[in-house]
Amino acid sequence: MSSVPAVDATDARLLLALSADPRATVLALSQQLGLARNTVQARLGRLETSGVLDPFERRVRPEALGYPLGAYVTVTVVQRSLADVSAALADIPEVLEVTGLSGVADLLVQVVARDADDLWRITEQVLAIPGVQRTDTNLALRRFVDHRMTPLLERAAGLGG
């Protein structure tokens, strides 16, 4: 995982306020949090440039773009091919995320597809990458817990467990 700076309690409160109202102005946030406008502006700038905040595109649902089928593909890679395979995976538009793993598989690849035939095409494309030894595909049937940060932000802000 990439290294990002630690978030203090004030940053956590600011992030919680932004989570509740992503369109809030700096002035509204400063009033809500009881902080100077310049303090809020500076902290937001630091949070953005330091990588604490994910890109906006993380909020776009693939289903809205015509990709209702989601899957996780575990990939086993020939030794010393990890960087090349990862770069080739990044060239496939339907690949949303690639995570390195410990254990039997080397990579966990989150993909989206238009339908089963499209998923077949994508997995064949992954298998064709030089250095890929094996893949195993698992369909994502239902999301039980959406990606969330609120419980951790509340803890960092000193508001909960």
From TrEMBL:
GO cellular component terms given for this protein: cytosol
| Keyword Transcription regulation recorded | yes
* Residues covered by the HTH asnC-type domain: 7-68
The biological processes this protein is annotated with in GO are: response to amino acid
Q: Which UniProt keywords apply?
A: DNA-binding, Transcription, Transcription regulation
Source organism, top-level taxon: Bacteria
Q: Which GO terms describe its molecular function?
A: sequence-specific DNA binding
Q: Which Pfam families match?
A: AsnC_trans_reg, HTH_AsnC-type
Q: Which InterPro entries match?
A: AsnC-type_HTH_dom, Dimeric_a/b-barrel, Tscrpt_reg_AsnC-like, Tscrpt_reg_AsnC/Lrp_C, WH-like_DNA-bd_sf, WH_DNA-bd_sf
Name of the molecule in the record: Lrp/AsnC family transcriptional regulator
Originating organism: Goekera deserti
